[in-house]
Amino acid sequence: MNDSGVVAVRDFLKDRDLDAFLISDKEDQFYVANYSGDDGFVVVSADEIFIVTDARFFSQIKAECPDCVIVDVAKSSLADFLAEKFSKVAIESGSLLTKDYLTLVDKGLATVDGDLVVKKARMFKSAAEIELLQKGASICDQVFDHIGDFMKVGQSELAVADEIERFGKSLGAEKLSFDTIVASGVRSAFPHGGASSKIIETGDVVTLDFGFVVDGYFSDITRTVVMGEASEEVKKVYGLVQKAEGMGIRFAPMVETFGDLDRVVRGFINDTEYGPFIHGTGHGLGLVCHDYPIIRTSNNDQLEANIVFTVEPGLYLENKFGVRIEDDVYKDEAGNMIRLTNSTTDLIEIK
Questions:
Q1: How far apart are the C-alpha atoms of 219 and 177, rounded to whole Å?
Q2: Is the dihedral of CA 152, 158, 160, 162 positive or negative?
Q3: C-alpha angle 270/271/274, rounded to 5°?
Q4: Fold of the domain built from segment(s) 3-122
Q5: Stretch 278-307: mean pLDDT, rounded?
Q6: What span, in angstroms and rounded, lies between the C-alpha atoms of 45 and 9?
Q7: 141-198, pLDDT tens digit by residue?
Q8: Would you list the DSSP string of 147-214?
Q9: Which tens digits make up the pLDDT trace of 32-81?
């Protein structure tokens, strides 16, 4: 159970004069109640925390969150339980299924959207959380060093992706953060190209985007390499992306909001002959890979200390190649930018 999450939820209830907060997002449930079951709901009131689920999870709840009150859905549905005890309930609109929401409406419950309440609390990482994120990032660095020696012309993208997963798990990772991207040649111009049976050829630009989970916390890194000698155009585009990423990390302590940071990076890339920049500058990291916040121009959240996030500019030349570089970073209490991923961002030519 995370005190910050509980406090954030109860402050929201008090400020909005609400009776309870219904948490349907699984990571939010874990953050607030330490409940890791894959079915059920967490309900927080001013003085109690309930977990509404079935008997498959009762023993797990007693071990993980013994102070929570179990509500057996075999005896009382979620809607019946809420309607019996509460009148005004906060919901998470981003994760509550429509069918579940409609059962609440049918019972006459008044609802208020609280989708970002727990996610914004989750933004701020404790020292222990940052240590776990650092472990995952360190695995990413070691895997990148290894894969540079492993990759050869004639291998398939899938073979490289499989080796990334194998080696990361050998270093202690629980699982991948997401399906590894190994995109070579013209496929490197696909921002989320995945890994395919395509054979890697001499001269190919190869995007490697991967991450690993350590004790539930996600890491994410992207590097772009060239098989053989890079062309002058590849070198030029790579240099622009490298400069944009460096600007993002360097300017982060100087801007007020995540939207400001996006404008710095986006403005630089858009002013080049290869713009526009077609995706966000980065995203938060934590209990999911693409955690809150998303770094885009419209985000006015303050860029404060201890929010771990990625900086990942990219340029994609259709039918030619693409370049993306991504690192995991945060601002410490002194205002310094701390890199969790530390692999070189210089262009590597694998020969």
A1: 7
A2: negative
A3: 65
A4: Creatine Amidinohydrolase; Chain A, domain 1 (3.40.350)
A5: 97
A6: 9
A7: 999 999 999 999 999 999 999 999 999 999 999 999 999 999 999 999 999 999 999 9
A8: HHHH--TT-BHHHHHHHHHHHHHHTT--EESSPPEEEEGGGGGSTT--B-SPBP-TT-EEEEEE-EEE
A9: 999 999 999 999 999 999 999 999 999 999 999 999 999 999 999 999 99
pLDDT at 296 over 90: yes
The C-alpha angle with vertex 50 and arms to 49 and 56, in degrees rounded to 5, equals 135
* Bridge partners for 257 per DSSP: 302
pTM of the predicted structure, to 2 decimals: 0.94
Q: Kindly report the CATH class assigned to 124-350.
A: alpha beta
Distance of alpha carbon 54 from alpha carbon 28, whole angstroms: 19
Cβ-based burial of 344 (10 A; exposed 0-12, middle 13-18, buried ≥19): exposed
Using DSSP bridges, classify how beta strands 212-214 and 175-176 pair: parallel, antiparallel or unpaired: antiparallel
206 strand-pairing partners: 184, 225
If you count them, how many residues does the chain have?
351
Token reading at 30: 């874990």
Measure the CA–CA gap between 126 and 4, rounded to whole angstroms.
Answer: 10
Cα–Cα distance for residue pair 141/158, rounded to 1 Å: 20
Domain ranges of the chain: 3-122, 124-350
Contact 161, 182 (CB under 8 A): yes
